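Checked the freezer inventory, then went back to the computational side. Two predictions to log before the end of the day. The first one is the construct we discussed on Monday; recording sequence and tokens without edits.
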Amino acid sequence: MRNCYFCTNNFKKIDYKEAESLKNFTDSQAKILPKKQTYLCVKHQRRLALAIKRARFLALLPFVKH
């Protein structure tokens, strides 16, 4: 089983302003990838989803790709 990316790299915070790093956790249609594909722990998956949603609201990430 793979380990959580944020736990292994000792990230203290998932920042919504780092849009380029958040793009790695979205698919081609700008949907948030599920936990089974990202291999994140529950705590970091929730924080990642919140960061992506905040970045979308501030127009740093798209809601949908056409």
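The second is the one RB wanted added to the comparison set:
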Amino acid sequence: MLTAITRAFRTPDLRKKLLFTLFIIVVFRIGSQLPTPGVNTEAIRQAVEGARNSDQGQLYGLVDLFSGGALLKLSVFALGIMPYITASIILQLLTVVIPRLEALKKEGQAGTTKITQYTRYLTIGLAILQATGIVAMAATGRLFPNAPDVLYKTDMFTIITMVVVMTAGTSVIMWLGELVTDRGVGNGMSILIFTQVVAVFPAQFWAIYKTKGAFAFALVMLVGLAIMAGVVFVEQAQRRIPVQYAKRMVGRRMYGGTSTYIPLKVNQAGIIPVIFASSLLYLPVLATQLWPENKWMIKLQPYLQQDNAWHMAVFFAFIIFFTYFYVAITFNPTEVADNMKKYGGFIPGIRPGRPTAEYLDYVLTRITTPGALYLGLVSLIPMVAFALMEATNDFPFGGTSILIVVGVGLDTVKQIESQLQQRNYEGFLR
């Protein structure tokens, strides 16, 4: 692998892409550390350290994961990539129910460009809403209850300035992600998400080493490597449905007669179900922080702890449900069967048309079950570690973080591998 990396840097155009991607990552991390005008960074730091091992720390841990620590600093890139991810998911779901968007999706590159433009507009709208809510909570002392003076001024001009700066930061993040996609290596948005998640790993490792000692740190690293190997194995697993294309004459030329397959991944839904489930469970936690004196919130609060069995069960059930839901709306067996029939393709032993759609739906349902269970179990790892081993909220391996790191890492390595193979190099896979 090290030899392949060396060869990649020896290739001039590939080296430029890798260096450009690293440059964008550096710019992104600088923006994540640059505070928004009017923010008292020292007060925020003390508030976060004071709440790290309290109930408030659960909310901070989730925020830290998706922003790389930027949101807890109220930095220029405080919103991170989450508004874009949310907008992309919303547009993807609306494509199923709005005929206009479904028609655009079928138009090819022109339709995809239009949907991308809608995603950008929706991202800016969501960024304005999120920035307004975060700044308002910081100004009223609800975001950091232990430090109500996180803003030097709370006048309207300061609040509007912070909202504009954070929204502009989201726009810059979108631009940086598209630059990486066009001129760098890998999917730009995925690379930036990967950067946000990995950015908090050193602090988490150091916290484990300082609080638990060298033996616990080594044990966590070994368990982490084992979990990572298992995630890689499942992420690569797929069921290949064989497809045969019949020979046909078009003019004087013969087409078809080839064999291929439809790859159905075990984890067909990716990380989206975990994000959905985490977002839904995040809402009641946020509600308890906004209305701590409400009697219903007081009764609900014990069930929102990470080490609570009911919390784990609901989280696991949400992941199972959203896995089936997302797979159902993103993979249409009827459409796939119709396209195969249109071009003369068929699955050996299965009649074209409706029987093919029913067979694909049957296979997809069977392989989605282990995929959903896998997502649920991996996502429960930090909660189980917190309950059984009294681990901190910064447990690095497991849950959303390990899924993002492995998924984006595999995708980026595959893209580098394909470019190396185009230049007659061995690449990473031997």
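For RB: The CA atoms of residues 324 and 373 lie 11 Å apart. The domain at 210-397 is CATH 1.10.3370.10 (Preprotein translocase SecY subunit). Let me know if you want it refolded.
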